Amino acid sequence: MKLTLLFFLGTTLLQLILLNRYFFALLGSSHKSRLHTNVHYLLSGMIIYLSSISFFPVLITGLLSLSSAFIISWCYSARIESKAFFSILYVILGFVAEILSYGFISQLKLAPVVTDLSNQETRLLILLLSSLFYFLFIVLIKMFKRQCDYKLTKWHYIVLALIHVISLLILNTLFFYAKESNMYILSVIGVLLINVTIIYLFDELIESFQIKDELNQLHKQNEYQNTSYQKISNSFQMTKRIIHDTNKHLVYIRACIQTGVQEKALNHISKTLKEMGNSYFTIATGNLVIDALLNNAISISNEKNIQFKHQVSLDIIDAIDSYDLCIVIGNILDNAIEAAQLLPAPESRFISIRIFTHNHMLTIHAKNPYIPNNKKRSQKNVELHGVGLLNIRHITEKYGGHLTTTAGEMFETIVVLPID
To answer: Where would I find the Sensor histidine kinase NatK-like C-terminal domain in this sequence (predicted)?
Structure first.
């Protein structure tokens, strides 16, 4: 008796290993602490052992198996809907493995009393053989699972859950009412293939949703980028208009001086200087994109009480398309301004950006303070921030460069682009 209980302890450890491999194949590596993981595996192991040594009704056994899998799923980073979905799938695959094991043992007469499932030796043999089948299922899943997780609509999760429930009902009917026919094994294999296919379709559905969302966000980003270009264009138009009207201003000032109304001349000079100051480029590197975007950012920062520090040292960077450069620098500056302006204390708001070339590389290093998970940040801005970083990454990959972001006390963004 004691030896049998030890064997059940061994099968419990084996099932925990299979659970670990199962969720690893579906959700990737666990990022939880060792203590967190050990506690969850201990709780799950106790449930599995209790279910193994006791003869419960099918419903209770299924719920215990579901709870053990769901406990282990919390060791992995995924949406709760996905954890529930894969936990139910674990129960289905386990049921399929046990039915196949039962059929295999019955055909080969490996146990003296196969029909007596309350017999511990019979159950132990079924558990061992079903573990082998389950290992084969995991290998099958790992062949095409891409380890991605993305939010679907609630109706998709409901439909997938219904497929699982129907599968369980079919398996229950096949096992208890169709064992007299050997064809039930083929039906069980059919249910297995349906549920394995569901994993593949789940991945395809997630990928289509992800692509659709990215396209929508890219569309928003393009609209936003066009708006930024319009602002820059307006700034240039204002500068051109002031330069064009300079002669007229000088003629009027000369007339004021000649007629002895110096006060009018001084007022007009002050007004003209103010207009020119609002549109004049304080940064003039010779690169139109960098000059326009940095000066526009300085103007916005002054309005929002943000201290703007900049250091620019450039060689020729004609190898980088102006449109691509606009996306990279524009998004970096917009993200920095949007984060800095949300700080409650004006004296703590600042942006530091360095743009320089060295060893045939263009480096853009931006740094700004930020408040993580700031509730004042609108959902629209959060989406644009994420899409902005995505667009920057696309540009860096296009040129064979790299993007690095660091979120500590400060948010830092480093972009390096080859210019050779």
So the answer is: 323-409
Q: How do residues 115-168 score in pLDDT, each as one tens digit?
A: 555 566 666 777 777 888 878 887 777 777 765 666 677 777 777 777 777 877
Say what the pTM is. Answer: 0.49
In a domain? residue 10: yes
Same domain, yes or no: 179 and 292: no
CA gap 375, 377 in Å, rounded? 5
Residue 262 sits in the same domain as residue 393: no
Say which residues have a Cβ less than 8 Å from residue 74's Cβ, sequence separation at least 6.
Answer: 32, 40, 83
Residue 218 belongs to a domain: no
End-to-end CA distance of the chain: 76
pLDDT digits (tens, 9 = 90+) for 346-395: 888 999 999 999 888 999 999 998 877 654 544 444 444 456 788 888 88
For every residue of the chain, which 3-state class applies, written as one string? CHHHHHHHHHHHHHHHHHHHHHHHHHHCCCCCCHHHHHHHHHHHHHHHHHHHHCCCCHHHHHHHHHHHHHHHHCCCCCCHHHHHHHHHHHHHHHHHHHHHHHHHHHHHCCCCCCCCCCCHHHHHHHHHHHHHHHHHHHHHHHHHCCCCCCCCCHHHHHHHHHHHHHHHHHHHHHHHHCCCCCHHHHHHHHHHHHHHHHHHHHHHHHHHHHHHHHHHHHHHHHHHHHHHHHHHHHHHHHHHHHHHCHHHHHHHHHHHHHCCCHHHHHHHHHHHHHHHHHHCCCCCCCCHHHHHHHHHHHHHHHHCCCEEEEEEECCCCCCCCHHHHHHHHHHHHHHHHHHHCCCCCHHHCEEEEEEEEECCEEEEEEEEECCCCCCCCCHHHHHHHHHHHHHHHHHHHHCCCEEEEEECCEEEEEEEEECC
Q: What range does the domain containing 67 cover?
A: 2-210
C-alpha–C-alpha distance, residues 248 and 214, integer Å: 51
* Residue 184 located in a structural domain: yes
